[in-house]
Amino acid sequence: MASLRLTLRSLGVSHRCCPRFPLSRITSNTFRGFATNLSPPSKAVVYEQQGPPDQVTRVIDLPPVELKANDVCVKMLAAPINPSDINRIEGVYPARPIVPAIGGHEGVGEVYSVGSGVCNLSVGDWVIPSPPSFGTWQTYIVKEETVWHKIDKDVPMEYAATINVNPLTALRMLEDFVKLNPGDTIIQNGATSIVGQCVIQLARIQGVHSVNIIRDRVGSEEAKGKLKNLGADEVYTESQLEVKNIKSLLGDLPEPILGFNCVGGSAASLVLKLLRQGGTMVTYGGMSRKPVTVPTSAFIFKDLALRGFWLQKWTNSEKAKDCIPMIDHILTLVKNGKLKYEMELVPFEDFSTALDKALGKSGSHPKQVIRF
């Protein structure tokens, strides 16, 4: 035992400073983690200028990175391609890294090695960046311990990789704008998105009904069935809502008190039409890149409120400390089978194919998640 303490001391680690690291846990992997001062070489998706992602991104080899005392080297396991990732590369997103930059903003990885001052993470732990941070599209990442949040390994990899952005957005929007009670109704467009799928299920858990709008496209009936299986009360295509007495489609459901818009244009107008007197529409995206146009009567006679939500602003505020318990709560729902959404795991070697799918080059596809 004395010789083990001596070895730890020679590596610059004080057992007294790390009481949560008992000597009984020391293994050959432990020494690998502390003794390595450099990360392995990494492969990364980089872009040196903003522009069309399929034209400006490329995969390159990166040299090893030195680990400082409080650094953790993480071997990435999986990371998604989100619309915000694409917008950052295009240069149209409000918060974006300085180029040259590595793509990606969330993901899950396994601790490969740790600096001498790291006490709360060990080699083999699964971690996610919380709040999300730039540069997850690479095989190895070195960042300070405070960046990483340890999670259980029994969560499916693809869910762990995508838990930070879309599910958290859905949860916050359901809780931050209107006090929802069991029996209330919400309405949303873009319902097949991951945020939309999460809204349906999280609302259902609260006893809240959902009316959902999807695009007119091939396979829309199949999409309706999938959303109904998640707990959606009603699902309509945009063309089905182009009727005079639109509210008759609600049947016995109460008029929606809260609406979510991620599309803009005419799809946003449909949400506004179905909101009840004094209702609120929250915009969190603009996939159609068309403006939200509101008739004067919606303000004067219906007293509607228009709000906006941006998760990054929320996570950069004093509320950021609340993210960890919320993420753990969502992961528990996943483990218990109460939250699920469609994804497609794609090998890192096929990144360009996954990117083309994420860009919508060949129709609609599930969320693309890169597996390293």
Automatic annotation (TrEMBL):
Look up the record and report any one GO term of the cellular component aspect: mitochondrion
Keywords carried by this UniProt record: Fatty acid biosynthesis, Fatty acid metabolism, Lipid biosynthesis, Lipid metabolism, Metal-binding, Mitochondrion, NADP, Oxidoreductase, Transit peptide, Zinc
Localization in the cell: Mitochondrion
SMART domains membership: PKS_ER
Q: Keyword Nucleus: yes or no?
A: no
Q: Which molecular-function annotations from GO does this UniProt entry contain? A: enoyl-[acyl-carrier-protein] reductase (NADPH) activity; zinc ion binding
The protein here is known as: Enoyl-[acyl-carrier-protein] reductase, mitochondrial
* Domain called Enoyl reductase (ER): residue spans: 51-370
Query: Does Cytoplasm appear among the keywords?
Result: no
Give the enzyme's main class according to its UniProt record, as a single word. Answer: oxidoreductase
**Which residues does UniProt assign to the signal peptide?**
none
**Could you give the subunit structure recorded for this chain?**
Homodimer.
Q: Tell me the lineage of the source organism.
A: Eukaryota, Viridiplantae, Streptophyta, Embryophyta, Tracheophyta
Q: What is the required cofactor set for this protein?
A: Zn(2+)
Q: Which residues form a coiled coil?
A: none
- CDD domains referenced in this protein's UniProt entry, alphabetically: ETR
Q: Could you tell me the Gene Ontology terms of the biological process aspect for this record?
A: fatty acid biosynthetic process
Q: Which reaction does it catalyse?
A: a 2,3-saturated acyl-[ACP] + NADP(+) = a (2E)-enoyl-[ACP] + NADPH + H(+)
Similarity annotation: Belongs to the zinc-containing alcohol dehydrogenase family. Quinone oxidoreductase subfamily.
Q: What is its EC number?
A: 1.3.1.104
Q: Which organism is it from?
A: Musa balbisiana (Banana)
